[in-house]
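User: I need a structural model of GATOR2 complex protein WDR24 from Bactrocera latifrons for a docking pre-check later this week. Nothing fancy, just the predicted structure tokens so I can convert them on my end. Input:
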Amino acid sequence: FTEVCNMLGGKNQNLSYSSNDVAWSSLDSNILATAATNGVVSVWDLSRFGQKKQLHVYNEHERTAHTVGFDIHDPHILVSGSQDGTIKQFDIRNEKSSYTYYSNSESVRDVKFSPHMQYVISAVSENGTVQLWDLRKGDKSILQFTAHSGPVYTCDWHPTKNWLATGSRDKQIKIWNMDGKASLEHTIHTIAVVGRVKWRPDRT
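Assistant: Understood. Predicted structure tokens for GATOR2 complex protein WDR24:
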């Protein structure tokens, strides 16, 4: 491995907090975002030099930021999920968040954009629930269901089918068919807590 870029040159020198998540923009190979334990969401542009690499420092979450993710349809839209129970939407052309969505849990552990439904994200929480949000309708989630008996730490959309995988502290991975109301397709029992689940990328 060869180091390509060192992020310590950011304009915010207080980078001593650890990162919980890193996400690349799927539409711009130079842009990435990070979620930090102090609640800060940062956006970086690797094509820039020195302190200019750090485009934005969003210090809006009140507690740890667990997850970040870019919209796969719009390269300017970013979402984050936090221990404070909120999901924030950012347009990275602006200095502040565009909208805040309030979950019914004290902690949002993962958020993912659906590749099948534009404007729709999934969010999983420590109270065992999954929520779907339409980013154009921020007053409440468009779907909510209890997925696990313990905290849900991770979720991921299937690249071609409208399936959502979830992983939990209850040592289970569940596959949900999201056509209409969520229906359980498969359950995988594991020997340990599931911290992260990922579908194999589509290679067709």
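Before docking, keep this in mind: The CA atoms of residues 24 and 32 lie 4 Å apart.
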